[in-house]
Amino acid sequence: MYKYLLFDLDGTITKSEEGIFNCIKYALDWAGIPYPEYRVFRSFIGPSLYDSFVREFGMDDAKAKEMVAKYRERYNVVGLFEAEVYDGVADTLRALKEKGCILSVATSKPTEPTLRILEKFGVGKYFDVVVGSNPDGTGSDKKHIISQVLESLKKDHGLTEDMIKSNQVVMIGDRRYDIEGGKACGLQTIGVLYGYGSREEFEAVGADNIVESPEEILNL
């Protein structure tokens, strides 16, 4: 059993595509840009918004930042709560805490709305550390975020480098960015298939474990 578990948010704790897609549409409507195919909407779940607007629409720096700001205009009021916690997640978090595990959130979403989401859906009480990106969406690289979580755990929750080296720390997420970020920080990794990624995606980046449900994490 892992002692320290880091969780992604979107696609791992919460099923959140409704709010994300609605806010992308809100920004596109403002910019007068036609909606892309469904694949493009799905590609926004995982990486930073800024990177996604640049990658999928070929936007320059200024335009991408405008689009992120417009997205946040709706998201921070309505979109963040257009979501639900996946079945089994709350029970799994509770069971992990009862076993004495230290739980954290490492997400590319800004920290402030992440805290609001966790509290709204009743799971904030399970997490000792929550780290996201900056309000403007910068600082969203997954390796950077995970590194910040680890520093906080070392400072306040007894984590040591030896614990990392002895595989007591794991990053859990639904996209390759979570797996790549975790591995870059020397962590074990778990890919979850109930989110927005695929087994092929996880196998391609070398996830240590792949699970189909939150409850399976308890058996690793």
TrEMBL record:
<protein>
    <submittedName>
        <fullName>HAD hydrolase-like protein</fullName>
    </submittedName>
</protein>
<dbReference type="InterPro" id="IPR023198">
    <property type="entry name" value="PGP-like_dom2"/>
</dbReference>
<dbReference type="InterPro" id="IPR041492">
    <property type="entry name" value="HAD_2"/>
</dbReference>
<dbReference type="InterPro" id="IPR050155">
    <property type="entry name" value="HAD-like_hydrolase_sf"/>
</dbReference>
<dbReference type="InterPro" id="IPR023214">
    <property type="entry name" value="HAD_sf"/>
</dbReference>
<dbReference type="Pfam" id="PF13419">
    <property type="entry name" value="HAD_2"/>
</dbReference>
<dbReference type="InterPro" id="IPR036412">
    <property type="entry name" value="HAD-like_sf"/>
</dbReference>
